[in-house]
Sequence to fold (159 residues):
Amino acid sequence: MQLDALDVGLIELLTDSPMLPAMECARRLGVARGTVTSRLTRLQENGVIQAIIPRIEPAGFGYQLVAFCSVELDQKYGHVRITDALTESIPEIMDMYTVTGDFDLHLRVVARNASELQDVFDRISQVPGVARTSSSLALREHFQGRTMPLVKAQATRSE
Fold:
């Protein structure tokens, strides 16, 4: 799907303020409310926007530590069974990716302190089918969920 300047403006508004009403988006963009509504519908139907939700910051309620955990799976258990078990049993897992290379999964996890982080790693390694893990601690977040430069670049290419 090709994006234009109005799409970019609407995405930017809702990225910065997800709770912004359609009428206010229309006012700020200088278009009719119906235009905003139809653009949002089109963006959602084409998979550009999955959902419009507030960005939750775990550090805001005490989860100051961020770590990455690479997980090697025992293939006889089946990938879906293991990822489902991790998802259901460990709420501190924020992101999970199947990856190529020496490991099968890459997780971003959070914890309140080092002791709790160790507990998270222990729970991950105890899930049946997890063969081995390796972890690293994030020292500083430079950005997360960076999409606007990509959205703007795509719209520029289509002009």
Summary: The radius of gyration is 20 Å. The chain has a mean pLDDT of 93.
